[in-house]
Structures are given as C-alpha cells and as structure tokens.
Amino acid sequence: MKNIAQIRAQYALTKVDEIKTNYNELNNKNYKSFVAGCPTMILQNGLGQALAFWAAKSKLNLGKKEGQILEVIRGWFGRPENPLKLESSDCKDFIQKLMQKNQNEFVLFQKETLLMLEWYKRYVNAFLDDKEAETNGDD
Question: What whole-number distance in Å separates Cα of residue 50 and Cα of residue 1?
C-alpha cells in the first residue's frame, strides 16, 4: 500500500509525462522557471489569489503555463486517493468550489497543494528540457 507522499509523487510524474507528450510548447526552461516559482507565489499571496492570477493570465487555456498549473492542481484534488478530494468539471468549477470552503478547510487545501507542487517542481526540473521557450509575442 502506497502512502500519500508516494501517491503525490506518482501523480506529479504522470503530469510531467503528459507535458512532454501533449504540450511540447511547455517542455522548456521557461516552464521550469515558472513552476519553480509557483509555491512561492502561493505562500506570498495565498492559494486563492494565485489561482485567480493564473486563471486571468491563461484564460483557462491548458496550452499556457498558467492554465497548465491550474489543471495540475485541479487534477490532484480530483484523485480518489487524495484525502481532500474535490470533484470539479473544469478549473473554473474547481476554483468556485474551493472558494466555498471554510478557512480551516481552505488552509488544508493550500498545504496539500504545496506538498504536491514540491514533487511536481522536482520532476519538471528533472525531466523537462532546458531549451529556451520559443517567443510568439503573447507572453
């Protein structure tokens, strides 16, 4: 039986594999740098503010780095193994349901997000490319 840390690690590795397979435009140094800063953004601004910022930047487009991190976080809370399971149909639905939580619950969601992102950040750093992102003028 796997413990929750192992399950987080497995989930994070799966999501990195999905980036390499389905979102090659994110397989670069720019995405690695962005992901490295995500936990800091959450700690400085709070989970709600970070999610709102990423939603505004990405317009919930999964091909954008901000949209992808939203989906990684949303997907983690949709997993049956996650003790803080929160089913949602998309990122907007996830944010709406999360905002309905009381303060104590919300803090637990923020802590769990940070724990999962530590694994995700490690795997992104280990397995994604160090090439520079191709600039297309919309970043």
Answer: 33
Confidence (pTM): 0.92
Q: What CATH code is carried by the domain that includes residue 112? A: 1.10.520.30
Banded pLDDT at 135 (limits 50, 70, 90): low
Residue 87, both tokens = 């089913």
- 70 Cα distance to chain centroid: 5
Q: What is the CA radius of gyration of the chain?
A: 14
Residue 139 has pLDDT above 90, yes or no: no
Return d(Cα 125, Cα 119) in angstroms, integer. Answer: 10
Quickly list H helices, the chain. 4-22, 29-45, 47-58, 65-77, 91-99, 103-127
Domain enclosing residue 42, as ranges: 4-127
Residue 133 falls inside a structural domain: no
Half-sphere exposure of 12 (CA within 13 A, CB side): 24
Structure tokens at 26: 């994110």
Q: How many domains does the chain have?
A: 1
